[in-house]
């Protein structure tokens, strides 16, 4: 089947893209309003886009309804310039899902989800205490594209629980972290527990020597 984008609705494009660009990492983003009201929400239009400098991207659509009202996360980041990405692992899945509920602006999603906060190292926005890893970010740029905002955040500090760091690299002990990924958006996720495949890259010299895997 082929889908010409001009022939399908925005909702159908969404369905196609989220089914195909998957699994996606999930950023449980903490942010704060100018008055200090805490906010937490998950985003899977999320990835790092470069490492020197370290920059990650979040795709935040505007609130449903056809207008241009930003979600609380996008508004907070625009106004305070800071946020924290808390890494979503198996043990945080339910709490993350509660944070996605469309609570009124004055409700602190973290309280609803039974999550606590911990002071961050560099930014004023706290991280989630129960998260095993978190990326503290300062807004680099926000692009407005159609009804979405693409937020580029420069990572200014990285927190990882000691048990998940192999100091040799340092490397993240990703096989032990049990991060979850989002699939097609209908409440579907994937575990990474016991799911790793290993396929080392082949150098050109190895290729010439006949190595194929
Ligand atoms: C796993 C998951 C991933 C999500 N990813 C996105 C996303 O990438 N972009 C987006 O705009 N909304 C996404 N949402 C929906 C937001 O989390 C939801 O609209 C939330 O209420 C926004 O909260 P806020 O207004 O406090 O920022 C996602 C929801 C879930 C459960």
Q: How do the helices and strands line up, and which of them pair or pack?
A:
Blueprint: H1 10-20, E1 24-25, E2 27-32, E3 38-43, E4 46-51, E5 54-61, H2 72-80, E6 82-87, H3 93-99, H4 109-112, E7 117-118, E8 127-128, E9 133-145, E10 148-160, E11 165-166, E12 171-172, H5 174-177, E13 180-182, E14 189-191, H6 204-208
Antiparallel strand pairs: 1-13, 2-3, 2-6, 4-5, 5-10, 6-9, 7-8, 9-10, 11-12, 13-14
The site of flavin mononucleotide (FMN) has 17 residues, from strand 3, strand 5 and helix 2.
Q: Strand order, main sheet: write it out.
A: 3-2-6-9-10-5-4
Spell out the helices and strands N to C.
HEEEEEHEHHEEEEEEHEEH
CATH architecture: Roll
Mind describing the biggest β-sheet?
Answer: 7 strands, antiparallel
**SS summary, helix count:** 6
Coarse structural class:
alpha+beta
Per DSSP, what share of the residues sits in E-state strands of 2 or more residues?
Answer: 25-35%
The number of distinct β-strands equals 14
How many domains in all?
1
User: Roughly how many Å apart are the termini?
Assistant: 33 Å
Please give the CATH class.
Mainly Beta
**pLDDT average, as an integer?**
96
pLDDT < 50 runs, ≥5 residues = none
What name is given to the CATH topology?
Pnp Oxidase, Chain A
